[in-house]
From TrEMBL, chain A:
The chain crosses the membrane at residues 12-35, 47-65. Keywords: Membrane, Transmembrane, Transmembrane helix. The keyword Transmembrane applies. This is Uncharacterized protein.
TrEMBL record, chain B:
This is Na(+)/H(+) antiporter subunit D. It is a multi-pass membrane protein. Pfam families: Proton_antipo_M. PANTHER family: HYDROGENASE-4 COMPONENT F, NADH-UBIQUINONE_PLASTOQUINONE.
Amino acid sequence: MSQSQDFFDRPATLRLILNSLYVICALLVGLDFVIHRHTEHPWEGLYGFYPIYGFIGCVILVLVAKWMRKGLMREEDYYQQTRESKTENTHGGD
Amino acid sequence: MVGIELPPFLLFYLGAVIALLGGATWRGPAMIVVIILSALNLWQLPAFYGLETQLMGMELKPIHIDRLSLLFGYLFHIAAFISVIYSLHVKDKMQQVAAMLYAGSALGAVFAGDLLTLFVFWEMLAVTSVFLIWAGRSDKAYSAGMRYLIAQVISGMLLLVGVILYYQHQGNLMFSKIGLDSVASWFIFIAFGIKCAFPFFHNWLTDAYPEATPTGTVFLSAFTTKVAVYAMARGFPGTEMLVYIGATMACFPIFFAVIENDLRRVLAYSLINQIGFMMVGIGIGTELGINGAVAHAFNDVIFKGLLFMSMGAVLYRTGRINGSELGGLYKSMPKTAVLCIIGAASISAFPLFSGFVSKSMIMSAALKDNFDVVWLLLLFASAGVFHHAGIKIPYFAFFAHDSGIRCKEAPWNMLLAMSIAAALCLTIGIFPQLLYQHLPFATDYSAYDVSHILTQTQLLFFSALAFVWLNLKGMYPPELPSTNLDVDWLYRRPLPRLLNACGRGCLYIDQTARNSILKLGHAFEDRLANLHSSGGIFSRTISISSMVAWVVTLLAVLLVFRFI
């Protein structure tokens, strides 16, 4: 298939992207120790505050959202079905 | 044009008339010419141009121009210009006329110097924009448009009540800082709040915007909420409650955005999230806060417009918009993909993109005024924005697993419109002074210092890392065809049922009451008939002797009483 030849479908490309992401992340954390940041909030000054907050924040976001699905998810035509079944009912009732 | 000073909204309304009368071929280009002329007119108006008039003894100021309204005025011209180019291929008179009237009403609203004029354009915004939703011409679009219109009209009615009370209280109608200190101001606050998509009042937005046409949503995303943000910035700066409302708005929609399947609805949720940032800025009320809110509103119109345009292009070409049905489109629509990523980077506030230079102002303002918890929430929301708008939108539309859809690249006019928006995102991101110098307050703020750049990049890259990690672990929720319940469930399910039940109850009580009264009547009739029938007490014949006996008895009794 020609599809597998496309740039972003090659496993090598994916590996390259992921590896560069890991390297960049490592570098960014490393910079924390090199650059002296000016801070306005005491927590801001902690090494790795922003990376950790970003990572944990997103994981919690996704896990909570996933958990929300249990209570909130309905079939795609949930609202429409109501109207259709209602019209069916009234037709049946007549 | 020089020498002729027209009210800023007028040319747009004339443009709508031209669109109404003109032929299909020239309608689009004519609208572009009108917008350019209107922008020139606005540009050459004197600095403190205003119109004053009287209506039944009330001082009115239908046009009032200052730095705040002027910035929104230019913004709306840019948004209208981009949106009209984007919709040049559309040959639907209803949509084009509605779009011009809608954009004109937004201009009328931001240049309204008094509350009555504001109310008129406030309602015009509602009435004209709903046609862009109905233009979707499906059952879903029709009912979503109805719900949208009801919410907007309720907002308008509250505003009218507020304005009347305000006039009684203050004796004038000038639209300046109102502040939350009277009943009138609460009415106005909630009217603005509904249009700002405050929590619990937000579903008109997530409900209706995704049902509009691909081009209609682009118009919708630009005007209604931004007029409300402008009104809030003018009427209620420094209202602390807005900080907490804003923080809530910034946070809760991102959860819904993560699990939403309709990618335009994801963007609608992220629109609320961005307005949340603006509300925080306005609520803080310092010069930095207001500047940040206004700058962010400016940038949001452009990058959110760009994202809506890219998703509109996908919908236009593939007929699909659900994340679960898309994927791999970068092969068919590479240019749209790149432009979408620019929009995504802007909304995520990557350095060098427009979101960065305005969002960081609001964050700094929150820290400076010691709103620590709010600052943490906004930081969380920033990471979340990147997650759902920055990564999710481009990833599920253009990459992810290949859906097998092969289509043409977006039409030239859509690509042109998206390119203009993308260019603006980058220009403002790289040269923020271009925007800063037009903000309501003079500022020497600089977004580009090492700390800001480093911390924001760290935050974003580690959010991306979280996305990758969750995906690799198989913990990322898959895109599923689904409906997620939100507050709108209340008025779409239990409320109609309750009303139905009430209706049935009333009907039942009514019928029972009628039946029982009828029964009583019948019984009375029967009794009367019985009494008068043969053998009944009223039809009996009585003999004369017994009559005489009774009369004698009666007289005897009277006689006895006479002697007592």
